[in-house]
């Protein structure tokens, strides 16, 4: 007969054992799902795809990494930058990417890549949400990071039902062929409002991102791609001020002078939010020249190791040029 | 008590009033039954059953109803 | 922050549990009260002041009632109660219904050609939780008035009764005698309570995340674009909404009651297998039970013993006979219940219609009572005849689904238009021509919804037959019990509708 104290002790051990087994199960299945996802990224939906695909890039092959929300992968085309200046880059943007996710993405990317420059589209800086939303994102992203089963939990749909999430992209860039013009011209930048501020919760994660880039010897470049819907003078000035304070570079492509040469009657996907293929081409040409000049990125064209790029280029031209021709007609 | 049983049988004669111990708990009397019973009791015994009296403990059995009526009559 | 979110489950609740445990027993109520206000503040900001003011007011009215009671002044007590209830309802009315009233007055003014006189609508944030704690406060006042409970001297205890964080968003609506003492006692956490509480929470997440949050897509698509759908699809949507609402609301209640249990507080149950009901009346004894009990205790019975009813009973017996006396009496007592029930859900005509819908159906059930008896006598069937009960359940389902169709419809007109479309163009082929796959749900989603419903159905059946309860689970052999825990955890993790490709769905009843 065990006395009461002994019994309590056994109970305590038993309860701990429950959590140990639970942890093992979760870690084990996380590892399994991560492995499966690495094998076949058709298992995953668009938002998770880029996280896997960046890991599958040849090690140390990239000179520039692009992160950000949907603005980034709609406006910046690595293949175009390759054609222009031989820049090897990849877009790890995700729709509605939160800074917490940007951080995770970079963390994963830096494991296999050592880019000279990280281009960050500034859209996420103004996705202002309440405190409890911020806490929620932080917790969720922590869960996703340490226990990938949360991130990849949906794979049963593919495994059991054969659902595939096939999606064509070119080094993370999504070709978008639709055209719905933005009709108010370049005037959106002249409306000077009061300076918008960068919220402390945003600053918190920006500091982590800045530190992470520094640690990995990558220069951070903030870019605001043309988007009347997302940018105005108040915002861009706030980003500029923030960049100055933190000693990071900022390239604003929204300007009444229109440095990129955006034609708002043709280059816009959805009334001033995203750019379509035509707009993306203009942005990518401009950005390629800018990166080449300011960051001294090597020209890899013709190198044996980058043969796959040349191959992809052909396919890219066929698809994109067609779309652009349609749009600009 | 006799009077009470007469009323109860008048309300519904298919119920074995004398031996049922869970009139409310077993849902033999529903809330509509309760309110028409209350109306009858009020009139016959010249009492005023308040809303606060309408709780299962007071209506679960004939004995309970009887006890409640007695108590209210004394007040 | 809401009960199904990571912030609540992995941060707020654990922190409160820890804080509760390390604080000395005497001060634990402070932890719970602070937690309640913090939680309320997280979604209602400054409206937390209204909650605090309500608590103080309720506490004061209780003490006042008791003081006057000692003087034996019955009439004055009644006036104090009326005053208390009036103030609470006025606050609720202002915060929730002012704009509805103004809009409808403006509509009338425009209709009679005097739109220049239109009143201004004010932007008031939709108050969350107020409908629930206001009912608890009214119940407390009435209980003190009736002498069911003594007035509470300690303000903190009343405040905690109204502001216990698991209940504050969606109920259950408790009576003071049900929860106040347990909340106040500050009993230490017990591992049995924690274990049973967590399995209840997991079960709630199962219902909410696997089933309800998927059905959300179909329901939203059809109800928000109802012009594009008719017939069979509308029926599917109405059924889906009833299921979504059940899974979501009862699932949330599982989380809430589970959370309460972790602190050793037994909150009243709100659901009891409503889809096993054989009549509309039974449905309302099994669905949102605490609201039904509240209305019965504080509206139905008081109205049915009011002087007016007494007069009617006397008059009726003389002039119209027993049957009609009972029927009209029931109608008089039922009408306010269902008017308030409809209004309580919110300032929309379709909620009022929903209330009236059940008023008519429940009254019909009372009216048909003698007919039913005759039917039983003639056919030899009874309440225990199997096939007959299947029919009765089916009939009740139709009543439920039709009711929820109007309840969810964007406007009352939309509700009628959807209802009519069922008969206009039934179009059954749309069930298999791929229409259902274009609503944000794929074959995998439908399969998991159906599988989930089957699991919930089996569990419901076992509970109905008293073959499954938390105590029984606690008594299971260890491997089986642990297996059950792990299975539930992994079901929620794998099949939950969260993360990429899904939307976080807000709690429906928090809006009421």
TrEMBL record, chain A:
Keywords: Hydrolase. InterPro entries: SGNH_hydro_sf. The keyword Hydrolase applies. GO terms for molecular function: hydrolase activity. SUPFAM superfamilies: SGNH hydrolase (SSF52266). Gene3D superfamilies: SGNH hydrolase. This is SGNH/GDSL hydrolase family protein. It comes from Roseburia lenta.
From TrEMBL, chain B:
InterPro entries: ACP-like_sf, PP-bd_ACP. Residues 1-73 form the Carrier domain. Gene3D superfamilies: ACP-like. This is Acyl carrier protein. It comes from Roseburia lenta. The lineage of its organism: Bacteria, Bacillati, Bacillota, Clostridia, Lachnospirales.
Automatic annotation (TrEMBL), chain C:
It is found in: Cell membrane. InterPro entries: Ac/AlaTfrase_AlgI/DltB, AlgI, MB_O-acyltransferase, MBOAT_fam. The chain crosses the membrane at residues 7-23, 35-58, 79-97, 124-146, 327-345, 351-368, 405-423, 443-462, 483-502. It comes from the Bacteria. Keywords: Acyltransferase, Cell membrane, Membrane, Transferase, Transmembrane, Transmembrane helix. Its main location: membrane. It is a multi-pass membrane protein. PANTHER family: ACYLTRANSFERASE (PTHR13285), PROTEIN-CYSTEINE N-PALMITOYLTRANSFERASE RASP (PTHR13285:SF18). Belongs to the membrane-bound acyltransferase family. This is MBOAT family protein. The lineage of its organism: Bacteria, Bacillati, Bacillota, Clostridia, Lachnospirales.
């Amino acid at each position: 007969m065990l006395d009461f104290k002994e019994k309590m002790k056994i109970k305590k051990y038993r309860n701990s054992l429950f959590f140990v087994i639970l942890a093992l199960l979760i870690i084990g299945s996380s590892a399994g799902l991560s492995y499966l996802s690495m094998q076949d990224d058709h298992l995953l939906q668009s938002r998770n795809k880029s996280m896997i695909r960046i890991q599958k890039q040849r090690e140390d092959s990239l000179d520039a990494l692009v992160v950000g929300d949907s603005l980034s992968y709609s406006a910046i085309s690595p293949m175009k930058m390759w054609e222009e200046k031989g820049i090897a880059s990849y877009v790890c943007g995700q729709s509605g990417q939160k800074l917490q996710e940007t951080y995770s993405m970079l963390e994963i990317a830096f494991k296999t890549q050592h880019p000279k420059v990280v281009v960050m589209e500034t859209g996420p800086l103004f996705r202002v949400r309440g405190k409890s939303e911020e806490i929620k994102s932080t917790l969720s992203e922590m869960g996703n990071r340490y226990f990938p089963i949360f991130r990849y939990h949906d794979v049963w749909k593919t495994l059991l039902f054969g659902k595939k999430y096939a999606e064509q992209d070119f080094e993370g860039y999504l070709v978008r062929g639709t055209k719905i013009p933005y009709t108010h011209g370049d005037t959106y930048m002249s409306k000077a409002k009061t300076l918008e501020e960068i919220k402390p919760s945003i600053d918190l994660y920006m500091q982590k991102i800045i530190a992470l880039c520094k640690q990995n010897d990558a220069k951070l470049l903030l870019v605001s791609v043309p988007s009347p819907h997302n940018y105005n003078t108040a915002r861009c000035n706030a980003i500029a001020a923030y960049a100055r304070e933190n000693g990071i570079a900022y390239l604003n492509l929204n300007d009444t002078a229109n440095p990129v040469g955006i034609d708002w009657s043709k280059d816009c996907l959805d009334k001033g939010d995203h750019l379509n293929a035509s707009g993306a081409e203009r942005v990518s040409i401009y950005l390629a020249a800018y990166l080449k000049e300011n960051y001294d990125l090597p020209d890899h064209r013709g190198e044996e190791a980058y043969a796959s790029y040349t191959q992809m280029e052909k396919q890219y031209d066929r698809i994109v040029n067609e779309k652009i021709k349609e749009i600009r007609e | 008590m006799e009077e009470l049983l007469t009323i109860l049988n008048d309300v519904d004669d298919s119920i074995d009033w004398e031996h049922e111990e869970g009139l409310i708990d077993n849902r033999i009397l529903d809330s509509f039954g309760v309110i028409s019973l209350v109306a009858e009791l009020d009139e016959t015994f010249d009492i005023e059953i308040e809303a606060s009296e309408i709780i299962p403990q007071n209506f679960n059995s004939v004995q309970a109803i009887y006890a409640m009526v007695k108590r209210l009559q004394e007040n | 922050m809401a009960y199904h979110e990571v912030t609540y489950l992995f941060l707020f609740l654990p922190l409160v549990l820890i804080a509760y445990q390390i604080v000395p027993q005497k001060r634990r109520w402070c932890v719970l009260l602070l937690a309640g206000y913090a939680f309320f503040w997280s979604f209602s900001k400054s409206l937390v002041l209204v909650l605090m003011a309500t608590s103080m007011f309720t506490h004061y009215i209780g003490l006042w009632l008791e003081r006057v009671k000692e003087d034996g002044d019955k009439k004055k007590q009644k006036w104090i109660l009326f005053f208390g209830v009036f103030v609470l309802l006025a606050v609720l009315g202002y915060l929730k219904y002012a704009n509805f009233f103004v809009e409808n007055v403006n509509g009338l003014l425009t209709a009679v050609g005097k739109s220049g006189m239109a009143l201004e609508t004010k932007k008031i944030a939709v108050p969350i939780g107020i409908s629930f704690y206001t009912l608890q406060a009214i119940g407390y006042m009435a209980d003190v008035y009736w002498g069911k409970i003594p007035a509470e001297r300690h303000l903190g205890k009343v405040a905690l009764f109204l502001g216990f964080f698991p209940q504050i968003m969606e109920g259950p609506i408790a009576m003071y005698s049900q929860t106040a003492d347990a909340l106040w006692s500050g009993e230490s956490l017990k591992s049995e309570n924690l274990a049973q509480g967590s399995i209840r929470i997991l079960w709630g997440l199962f219902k909410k995340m696997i089933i309800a949050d998927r059905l959300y897509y179909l329901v939203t698509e059809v109800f928000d674009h109802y012009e594009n759908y008719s017939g069979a699809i509308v029926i599917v949507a109405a059924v889906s909404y009833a299921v979504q609402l059940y899974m979501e609301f009862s699932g949330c209640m599982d989380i809430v009651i589970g959370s309460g249990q972790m602190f050793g507080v037994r909150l009243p149950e709100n659901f009891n297998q409503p889809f096993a009901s054989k009549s509309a009346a039974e449905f309302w004894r099994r669905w949102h039970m605490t609201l039904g009990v509240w209305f019965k205790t504080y509206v139905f019975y008081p109205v049915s013993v009011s002087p007016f009813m007494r007069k009617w009973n006397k008059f009726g017996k003389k002039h119209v006979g027993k049957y009609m006396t009972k029927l009209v009496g029931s109608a008089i007592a039922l009408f306010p219940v269902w008017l308030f029930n409809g209004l309580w859900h919110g300032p929309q005509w379709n909620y009022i219609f929903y209330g009236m819908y059940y008023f008519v159906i429940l009254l019909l059930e009372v009216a048909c009572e003698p007919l039913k008896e005759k039917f039983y006598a003639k056919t030899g069937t009874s309440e225990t005849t199997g096939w007959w009960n299947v029919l009765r359940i089916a009939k009740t389902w139709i009543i439920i689904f039709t009711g929820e169709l109007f309840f969810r419809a964007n406007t009352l007109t939309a509700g009628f238009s959807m209802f009519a479309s069922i008969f206009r163009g039934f179009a059954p082929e749309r069930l298999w021509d791929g229409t259902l796959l274009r609503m944000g749900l794929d074959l995998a989603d439908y399969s998991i919804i159906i599988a989930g419903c089957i699991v919930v159905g089996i569990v419901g059946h076992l509970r109905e037959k008293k073959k499954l309860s938390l105590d029984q689970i606690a008594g299971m052999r260890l491997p089986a019990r642990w297996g059950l825990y792990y299975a539930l955890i992994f079901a929620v993790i794998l099949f939950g509708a969260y993360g990429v490709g899904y939307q976080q769905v807000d709690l429906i009843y928090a809006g009421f």
